[in-house]
Amino acid sequence: MDDAKKWYLSKTVWGALLAVAAPLLQLAGIYLDEGMQTELAASITTIAGAAGGVLALIGRISARSALTR
To answer: 45 burial class (0-12, 13-18, 19+ CB within 10 angstroms)?
Structure first.
């Protein structure tokens, strides 16, 4: 694997976390079917990617050094 990405941008990681969380949520009376788990994992990775972009932009704006070539 040459391509690397942050763990929180992985749909596989979020899918696995949701697969673990779903039975625990059932104990609390909240039911997530497989389709809902898939949609939720995709939504979380999209939000995490957008949040990462916003944080990078904020970091660049608040940086105290200039960029060079």
So the answer is: buried
Nearest 5°: CA angle at 57, between 65 and 46? Answer: 150
Instruction: State the pLDDT at residue 27.
Output: 92
State the DSSP code for 7: G
Tell me the torsion sign for CA atoms 41, 42, 44, 49.
positive
SS3 content of the chain, % helix, strand, coil (to 5): 70, 0, 30
More confident position, 58 or 68: 58
- The closest alpha carbon to 8, from 45, 46, 33, belongs to 45
